[in-house]
Write a structure and sequence with these properties.
Blueprint: H1 6-10, H2 30-54, H3 66-73, H4 84-95, H5 117-129, H6 140-157, E1 164-168, H7 171-189, H8 194-197, E2 206-210, H9 215-223, E3 231-234, H10 244-252, E4 258-263, H11 275-284, E5 288-292, E6 317-321, E7 333-337, H12 340-347, H13 361-364, H14 375-408, E8 414-415, E9 423-427, H15 431-444, E10 450-454, E11 457-463, H16 471-485
Parallel strand pairs: 2-3, 2-4, 4-5, 5-6
Antiparallel strand pairs: 1-7, 6-7, 8-9, 9-11, 10-11
Bound molecules: pyridoxal-5'-phosphate.
Cofactor: pyridoxal 5'-phosphate
InterPro entries: Aromatic_deC, PyrdxlP-dep_de-COase, PyrdxlP-dep_Trfase, PyrdxlP-dep_Trfase_major, PyrdxlP-dep_Trfase_small
Protein name: Glutamate or tyrosine decarboxylase
Length: about 475
């Protein structure tokens, strides 16, 4: 697909646009507007299929960067209107070169899922329905779908059925919403009403994290005004798991309200904290336990991988993503709180104009008006069923094992982690060669892996998160790496 020229993209009066009607838009004609919708949606449908069909053969990493894409889409704001279908065609024709092959089978960068067919189609419906899904009183269909999706997830994760599930944009906001709720709750238990009395003179909350926590925990702490000087960082083992002896020492060293952040799925190694050992220690010290399980919580859905999450259900809050392991489109994460009363204390709004019908979405997340982003998650779960979710997670794990085995067999490549879950980390003998291999893989185009740093050394990371990855994709990727190393 050739990019349209920058000049054509900038033109407000090319063959694709229809004449302006002056100050008033043509859209005031309702019948005309309905026709616009049909042809615009048909154009989007066609372009979407073309994109999906291109995934297997196009380079996974784009050949152009931001500057080229600004050229294609930039220029001054057009003075006059352009018809909807023409706009969609411009988008589709221009976008290709800068799009990343994320929904395909060989994107292994960061921790990023693809999109299951049912979830993708459901997401289109969410846009067409245009439901502002903050409250059951306003949008019963989408709130019901999200509530069911939340209940199904609690069941799959083995978490308490009465917990609240708030759909947010992703793991970052889920961590933020859970930690905000946690701070409110531990202060309330210490006799401090944060909503009324504010933070200024509040008792100090001890914030205990592992040495290999995800960066989104650090950002959540910043959003909450919990400064680095107030954190206690507990040492971790060689896979990034928090040491129970370290947690015991950290909590013994102080007193008062405390929040302990644990992790299901370290982003480099995929390792899980030992919840069975750590959570009882934290609870014995009266701490709130939060689990960041952006992709790791999903291990609990598989009878074969569930052991990794043993003891996790005893925590007080859990953050996870649907757009990673469950393979729904961006964006969708879940903030799960054991006691919904804590969510309500943190988020329920007091506005008179709002009518409550039980637990509303706006009672359990920071948002008010919101997209029904949980509906694609409902569709993904409905299409997979319990066995299908387990099979998906086990397949990701099996692909990771196969990738690790294949990489380990390449002369000079060393796999650095245990590969108990979906992450594979590897490197060459020296840092410069490792970084060069990472760049060469992106340039070669067969697959995408992410550069990383582990224990002060350069590494490369391969995350198995796409339902679309087949054994053939693993083989193609290994062949590419072999040719680049050899
Ligand atoms: C991806 C990730 C996050 C952040 O999630 P987003 O969906 O990117 O906001 C947090 N924690 C871990 C362990 C992750 O892998």
């Amino acid at each position: 697909m050739a990019p349209i020229s920058a000049a054509a993209a900038h033109s407000a009066s090319g063959p694709l646009s229809r004449p302006s009607t002056g100050a008033t838009l043509a859209l005031v004609d309702a019948r005309d507007g309905a026709d616009d919708r049909e042809s615009a949606l048909a154009a989007a449908h066609e372009a979407a299929l073309e994109w999906l069909r291109s995934l297997d053969e196009r380079p996974v990493w784009p050949r152009v960067g931001l500057d080229e894409m600004l050229e294609v889409f930039g220029g001054p704001l057009p003075e006059h209107s352009t018809d909807a279908t023409a706009v969609v065609r411009q988008l589709a024709d221009g976008a290709g070169p800068g799009l990343v092959g994320i929904p395909g089978g060989r994107f292994f960068g960061f921790v990023i899922g693809a999109t299951l067919p049912a979830a993708l189609a459901a997401d289109w419906l969410v846009s067409a329905w245009d439901q502002n899904s903050g409250s059951a009183m306003l949008t019963p269909t989408t709130v019901a779908l999200e509530r069911v999706a939340g209940q199904w997830m609690l069941d799959l994760f083995g978490l308490p059925a009465g917990a609240s599930v708030g759909f947010v944009t992703g793991g970052q906001l889920a961590n933020f919403a859970c930690l905000l709720t946690a701070r409110n709750a531990v202060l309330a238990r210490a006799g401090w009403d944060l909503a009324e009395q504010g933070l200024h003179d509040a008792p100090r909350v001890r914030f205990v994290v592992g040495a290999d926590r995800h960066g989104s925990i650090d950002r959540a702490a910043r959003f909450l005004g919990i400064g680095r000087a107030e954190w206690t960082v507990v040492e971790a083992d060689d896979q990034g798991r928090m040491l129970a002896s370290g947690l015991e020492r950290a909590l013994d060293a102080g007193e008062g309200p405390a929040i302990v952040c644990l992790q299901a799925g370290e982003v480099h190694t995929g390792a899980f904290d030992d919840f069975g050992a750590l959570i009882p220690v934290a609870h014995r010290h009266g701490a709130w336990v939060h689990v960041d399980g952006a992709f790791g919580l999903w291990a609990a859905t598989s009878p074969r991988l569930r052991h990794l999450t043993a003891g996790m259900a005893a925590a007080d809050s859990w953050a996870t993503d649907a757009h990673k392991t469950l393979n729904v489109p961006y964006d969708c994460g879940m903030a799960i709180i054991r006691d919904p009363a804590d969510s309500i204390a943190a988020f329920r709004t007091g506005g008179d104009y709002l009518v409550y019908t039980g637990l509303d979405p706006w009672d359990v997340t920071p948002e008010l008006s919101r997209r029904a982003r949980g509906v694609p998650a409902w569709a993904a779960l409905r299409s997979l069923g319990r066995a299908g979710v387990a099979e998906l997670v086990e397949r990701l794990h099996a692909n990771a094992r196969a990738m690790a085995e294949g990489l380990g067999a390449i002369d000079g490549v060393r796999v650095l982690n245990d590969v108990d879950y979906t992450q594979v980390m590897f490197r060459l003998a020296d840092d410069a060669a490792t970084r060069a291999l990472g760049a060469a893989i992106l340039a070669e185009g067969t697959a995408v892996v992410t550069g990383a740093e582990w224990r002060g050394r350069a590494a490369l990371r391969c995350s198995m998160s796409s339902w679309a990855t087949t054994p053939a994709d693993v083989d193609r990727t290994l062949a590419a790496v072999r040719s680049l190393v050899g």
